[in-house]
Design a protein that fits this description.
The complex is a heterodimer of chains A (269) and B (275). Chain A is α/β, with parallel strands linked by helices and 269 residues long. In chain A, 35% of the residues lie in helices and 24% in strands. Chain A has a 6-stranded mixed sheet with strand order 5-6-7-3-8-9, with helices on both faces. A 3-stranded antiparallel sheet of chain A has the order 2-1-4. Chain A is globular, with a radius of gyration of 18 Å. Chain A starts with a helix and ends with a helix. Chain B folds into 2 domains: 1-52; 61-274, Orthogonal Bundle (MetI-like fold), CATH 1.10.3720. Classes of the chains: A alpha/beta (269), B mainly alpha (275). Chains A and B meet through strand 5 and helix 4 of A and helix 7 and helix 8 of B.
Chain lengths: 269, 275
């Protein structure tokens, strides 16, 4: 076990040991022209602090809906949501939640540095533990790009900026909604490795939505499989890889077997 | 070693050639319209001379140019009130449109109630509205500025309302996660997103505000480009009529140019601008 993992385990055994995310019997239903659609049904979930959980499922399984319930962007139709021991709204107001979208969603008229600074400028400013934007840009490998505008960057670089922006308030919970889904494979691999480094460095709890079996298995300490229509938890699989992870692990028999198993479950979702 | 030097030299040569071709292209794009203009003017002058067209039917370009120089003082004296009316109308009309678009974006009920009315009012031809404004506001600057304002108002209202709503859902979610206030969302996201939409409306408004002022002056004004046009027509002074039109459209073009320059300055970040 790495030193950081040990620290994290110690922290979890302390007084503040409530899970990062607790969902009990959460359901989300939408009313549409074609009747009531059940996006999530009876979700029970507990994610310990410091975990990296991959959410894997076919499209329409409610992965993004689940993330939006945790982020307080969407109120569940029924059930209870507890984030870091309080309500989702409190966690959001305390700036404990960072969110990375599939599309980097940068503001085109702000340069890289000002995009990363945005969370410090709105909603009552940053919190006391806010991180230095320059330092975060260095962390995501964009030192020297502070003055560039989003249209001058590649897709992968834009997503790095979005990650730095999500980290600027030093959130305890980082929610990622298919952040690398639109990138080419080489860029995606590189960002996967870098994200694990960021996770190690920040100690944040990460919920990572993806529809890629390999990405889910490579990144997560655990993979949660969701089934579609209605969205529900199909299975939960622990990833038997050691930390820190390197891309070469994806060629090991354990990894191949895990991917095959996830794929088999996914086909029944 | 030597082959490398040759490669570099040929690269330099290629770059020089490329730069030269580029600069030729830029000059061609600037000079060709000028050439086209002189060709048309020459054709016009030629037709007037060859077919002995009487000056009050269609004056020769040289006659128009002569009138422009002889009456430069008169032209400028009449341009001043028209320009003033157009600029005041432009400012008032666009300010009102921006205020209403802001209300529309924050209160859907207001938009649903008043947008169809705005569309209906806009269908009234400005020529028909001009006498109404003169009756309401008198025969001074106010009526002409009001007509110019009216004609600017609608394109800006429609474009800005659309632009303020053009924020991506994910950017709205981002602002929500950051607990941004409605004022912060408006100032930091909506307004900036709407700027390209706003500027395309303002460029239209720059031209139409001058039209509004001139049309307003047709109703019994004694000064202004519009008044000059009416007087020249009644006096069969076609050269003066054409000269007035030239002065009016030159001012419109300058106004348009100023707004375009402002747009380039404000939208430096835009992909379309740098491409």
């Amino acid at each position: 076990m790495t030193q950081i993992a040990l620290d994290r385990a110690r922290e979890a055994s302390g007084a503040d040991a409530r899970p990062a995310v607790e969902l009990s019997d959460v359901s989300v239903r939408f009313v549409t022209d074609r009747g009531v659609v059940s996006a999530l049904e009876h979700i029970d979930l507990s994610i310990p602090r410091g975990a990296f959980l991959s959410l894997l499922g076919p499209s329409g399984c409610g992965k993004s809906t689940l993330l939006r319930v945790v982020a307080d962007l969407l109120a569940p139709t029924s059930g209870e949501v507890r984030i870091l021991g309080g309500t989702a709204r409190e966690a959001r107001a305390r700036r404990d939640i960072g969110f990375v979208f599939q599309d980097a969603s940068l503001l085109a008229w702000r340069n890289v540095l000002d995009n990363v600074r945005l969370p410090l400028e709105v909603g009552g400013g940053g919190r006391r533990g806010a991180r230095e934007p320059h330092e975060l840009l260095a962390l995501v490998g964009l030192a020297g790009w502070e003055k560039a505008y989003p249209h001058e960057l590649s897709g992968g670089m834009r997503q790095r900026v979005a990650i730095a922006r999500a980290l600027v308030n030093d959130p305890k919970l980082l929610l990622m909604d298919e952040p690398f889904g639109a990138l080419d494979e080489i860029t995606r691999d590189r960002l996967n490795e870098e994200l694990l480094r960021v996770w190690d460095e920040t100690g944040a709890t990460i919920l990572f939505v993806t529809h890629s079996v390999y990405e889910a298995a490579f990144l997560g300490q655990e993979v949660l499989l969701l089934a579609a229509r209605p969205g529900r938890v199909r299975d939960s699989v622990r990833v038997p890889l050691t930390n820190p992870r390197v891309l070469a692990m994806r060629e090991t028999p354990e990894f191949v077997a895990l991917a095959a198993r996830l794929r088999a479950v996914l086909e029944t979702c | 070693m030597s082959s490398e030097a040759i490669a570099l030299a040929s690269d330099d040569a290629a770059l020089t050639k490329f730069a030269a071709a580029r600069s030729r292209e830029a000059w061609r794009r600037r000079l060709l319209p000028v050439g086209g203009l002189f060709l048309l003017l020459g054709l016009w002058q030629f037709s007037v001379d060859v077919f002995h067209i009487r000056p009050f039917i269609a004056p020769a370009p040289t006659a128009v140019a002569a009138r422009l120089f002889d009456h430069a003082g008169l032209m400028l004296a009449n341009l001043a009130p028209t320009a003033m009316e157009a600029i005041i109308g432009f400012v008032i009309g666009n300010a009102a449109a921006m205020a209403l678009a802001t209300v529309f974006v924050h209160h859907r009920i207001a938009e649903e109630a008043f947008f169809p009315i705005a569309v209906m009012v806009h269908t009234i031809p400005v020529v028909a509205l001009a006498p109404i404004f003169v009756l309401l506001l008198g025969n001074g600057l106010a009526a002409k500025a009001a007509i110019a304002a009216f004609i600017c108002f609608f394109p800006t209202l429609v474009n800005l309302t659309r632009g303020l709503r053009a924020v991506s859902p994910q950017q709205m979610e981002l602002m929500r996660i950051l607990s941004a206030s409605p004022a912060e969302i408006f100032l930091k996201v909506r307004l900036k997103t709407a700027l390209p939409y706003l500027f395309s409306a303002l460029k239209i408004a720059a031209v139409t505000s001058v039209i509004g002022a001139i049309v307003g002056e047709w109703i019994g004004a004694t000064t202004g480009i519009g008044a000059l046009i009416i007087q020249a027509t009644y006096n069969f002074d076609s050269a003066l009529l054409y000269a007035s039109i030239v002065v009016g459209s030159l001012f419109s073009a300058c106004f348009f140019g100023v707004i375009s320059a402002l747009e380039r300055y404000c939208l430096r970040w835009s992909v379309a601008q740098s491409a």
